[in-house]
Write a structure and sequence with these properties.
heterodimer, A: 115 residues, mainly beta, seven-stranded mixed beta sheet, 11 strands, 0% helix, B: 112 residues, six-stranded mixed beta sheet, five-stranded antiparallel beta sheet
Chain lengths: 115, 112
């Protein structure tokens, strides 16, 4: 089965530093998402992206966050100045064009630790 | 407020036994309900997706039910295996194409 690939699997950074989390969605998918999961808590929606623009974002996704699709394959999440509370597992997800209730495929996540 | 509540929080069963996990939601309007399996340190994997008009859906040993009137769903696992040990997450989408609303999950441990 095709997979969503995320790199790196683990990222450790100092508070205030910028980080970029990378994702390669499934090749024919057109809708892209970032979710995060703080340890022991539920998965939370951050942002959705379609046709080269943000289609929906949560209140977590403030101006410290940005997303980009720099080429035809990568989808990135940038955190401009990390805070301790940004420590979490970040999941990228994608789905194909079609009915909005189609299956969403998740990557294995990037564990971000902010020190 | 749109919420998804799951019970029990955790469950331990013997290999080969069946179990049922519960989900209650207050999400409105309602588009669909999904069950995901999440292994430790991995991303969620979709098991079933049900829309308003569907009240049961199976995927191998997993069978999900949905009662849209009472806003309840269950996931039944038959003849459990050690590899079923994971977190099972109930997820609701309130309008087609919008963000998914996740429950906290039920942690299932299957022992031999």
């Amino acid at each position: 089965e095709p997979e969503v690939t995320q790199t790196p699997s683990h990222q450790v950074t100092q508070m205030g530093q910028e980080v970029i989390l990378r994702c390669v969605p499934i090749s024919n998918h057109l809708y892209f998402y970032w979710y995060r999961q703080i340890l022991g808590q539920k998965v939370e929606f951050l942002v959705s992206f379609y046709n080269n623009e943000i289609s929906e974002k949560s209140e977590i996704f403030d101006d410290q966050f940005s997303v980009e699709r720099p080429d035809g394959s990568n989808f990135t999440l940038k955190i401009r100045s990390t805070k301790l509370e940004d420590s979490a597992m970040y999941f990228c997800a994608s789905r194909s064009q079609g009915a909005p209730n189609e299956k969403l495929f998740f990557g294995s996540g990037t564990q971000l630790s902010v020190l | 407020k749109n919420q998804v509540e799951q019970s029990p929080q955790s469950l331990i069963i013997l290999e080969g036994k069946n179990c049922t996990l519960q989900c209650n939601y207050t999400v409105s309007p309602f588009s669909n309900l999904r069950w995901y399996k999440q292994d430790t340190g991995r991303g969620p994997v979709s098991l079933t997706i049900m829309t308003f008009s569907e009240n049961t859906k199976s995927n191998g040993r997993y069978t999900a039910t949905l009662d849209a009137d009472t806003k309840q769903s269950s996931l039944h696992i038959t003849a459990s295996q050690l590899s079923d040990s994971a977190s099972y997450i109930c997820v609701v989408q309130n309008q087609a194409g919008t963000a998914l609303i996740f429950g906290k999950g039920t942690t299932l441990s299957v022992s031999s």
